Amino acid sequence: MKKILLATDFSERSDRALRRASLLARGFDAALSIVHVVDDDQPRRIVDSEHAAASELLRELRNTVRDVDGIACDVRVIVADPFAGIARATEEDTPDLLVIGPHRRQMLRDVFVGTTAERTIRAVGCPVLMVNAPPVAAYRHVLLTTDLSEAAVRVATTPAVRDIAARATATILHVFDAPALHMAMSHTIPAEDRDAYRDDQHRAASRALAEFVAAAEWRAIRQEVRQAGKAPAEEILSMARDLPADLLVVGTHGRGGLARLLLGSVAETVLREAEIDVLAVPPAATA
Questions:
Q1: Can you say whether the dihedral through the CA atoms of 217, 161, 138, 145 is positive or negative?
Q2: Is 110 part of any domain?
Q3: pLDDT in tens, 139-149
Q4: Is position 78 within any domain?
Q5: Is 125 within a domain?
Q6: How many domains does one find in the chain?
Q7: I need a labelling partner for 159 at 20 to 30 A (CA). Which of 96, 99, 104, 108 fits?
Q8: Left (φ > 0), alpha (ψ -120 to 50) or beta: where does 208 sit?
Q9: H or E element, residue 4
């Protein structure tokens, strides 16, 4: 990982993201850039005032990162729609990783327009790290998730994912279904037959995961399969707590839908509910 971009709004949430970005930049000897976007949908005098204030705050951040962490970084202000501005910064800088602060939970706003993290991920073409937990050290346990698709192979082999996971304990999880147990007449199946069927499905899922890991050329990763006794996102979050993991990696779906651009229900739920950091990899980042 050679280039990291941090998007900041100067909030306490962004301070957390700055700390994680600095730890990663120092750990990987990567270049760090910091960007702030001033919303251009305001009167000109307000835009100019916010631009001047943001420029001063960024200079202070640059000096702090240099003096405290020993990292040289570039800073800049972009005037644009916030999400378009972040997308433009990623297109111009081509970072290996974009770092943002945690999701601020606002229930009604989330329902209608999606979280800030989701909207950012839709807009950019690189992996996005959402920093939820206070950073204290390098990541210790990374949990990857997979649906065993070709797209998931590309997520698992994304450089930012590889680089971060290589310096931690890594586990990969596949949540499988046992469809026959959900059929209307499944209660008529003898208990021993249900158990045998469940065991067969578990073995098949384990074999499929082993083949996936081989295809992704992961050599040192713990493999876990779980039956979907509840929603897949809940199983993933439960596994993250059980390990415990401090970073969760998810792939996101492509653009789709008429009313909104969907990330996919699993990724959406993980982004909204996770208390640990989440590394989301959009399709464009694996192209």
A1: negative
A2: no
A3: 999 999 999 98
A4: yes
A5: no
A6: 2
A7: 104
A8: alpha
A9: strand 3-7
Which one is predicted more confidently, 245 or 230?
245
Give the β-pairing of 128-130 and 97-100: parallel
pLDDT tens per residue across span 251-287 = 886 433 332 333 467 888 888 889 999 999 987 666 5
pLDDT band at 112 (very low <50, low <70, confident <90, very high): very low
Same domain, 78 and 36: yes
User: Per-residue pLDDT averaged across 143-169, rounded?
Assistant: 93
What's the Cα-to-Cα distance from 19 to each of 26, 44, 218, 256, 262, rounded to whole Å? 11, 33, 29, 34, 30
pLDDT (average), residues 36-46: 95
Residue partners of 179: CB distance under 8 A and separation at least 6: none
Whether 182 is in a domain gets the answer yes
> Are residues 198 and 153 part of one domain?
yes
* Same domain, yes or no: 177 and 88: no
Report the distance separating Cα 73 and Cα 251, nearest Å.
Answer: 29
